[in-house]
Amino acid sequence: MRLFAAVLPPEAAVAELREAVRPLRDDRLTWTAEAGWHFTLAFMGEVHDDVLPELHARLERAAHRTAPFALRLHGCGHFGDRALWAGAAGDLDALRLLADRADAAARRAGVPMEQHRRYTPHLTLARSHGRRHGDGHGHGTPLRPYLDALAEFEGTTWQVDTLSLVRSNLPVSGVPGEQPRYETVHAWPLAD
């Protein structure tokens, strides 16, 4: 199973972001389906079934060691010319701590993880379909108009009270533009 630990925004936060993004949606970018809006805490990739019991136990411990905290969707950013994302504000130290704990839980359970980097909270909104050339330069859609339009976005604060383990089901139809489907396989309440 392709798995990741995540914080899922509540429906009210999704609705606010939906309204902010609606006038920007066009076919120059590939827009992420709302069902895929989440803050990834730790991406684990393919996880073998025999690791799951230990992974679940360690993620549960990570959740129980973390108090609920305030978060809101805030502004936007980008990764080069490849991806446009909404950011977060609020108790980012608590969000980073939860990300670190989820990453450590996966490592200790035996999941081979990528090199640990400083966590950048982001919720992917769209990807450029620009092609990269051998020189490393892409000719994707310029993201500046989208960044300018979302720069002032401020969502309403909510309480993060759950750590979710999400399965990513990759597209199998071969239909261009089909997106992964996400399914929450387990969720643990935060409780310090």
Provide a descriptive summary of the structure in words.
The protein contains four helices and nine strands. The chain has 192 residues and is an alpha+beta fold. A five-stranded antiparallel β-sheet has the order 2-6-5-4-7. A four-stranded antiparallel β-sheet has the order 3-1-8-9. Strand 4 and strand 5 form a beta hairpin. Helix 2 packs antiparallel against helix 3. The two termini are 29 Å apart.
Question: For the terminal residues, how far apart are their CA atoms?
Answer: 29 Å
Helix content: 25-40%
Radius of gyration: 17 Å
User: How would you sum up the major sheet?
Assistant: 5 strands, antiparallel
* Average of pLDDT: 90
Q: Spans with pLDDT under 50 lasting ≥5 residues?
A: 132-137
Q: How many individual helices?
A: 4
Strands of the widest sheet, in order across it, are 2-6-5-4-7
Strand content: 25-35%
- Give the overall shape: globular
Structural class assignment:
alpha+beta
User: What letter string, H or E per element, gives the SSE order?
Assistant: EHEEHEEHEHEEE
Number of strands: 9
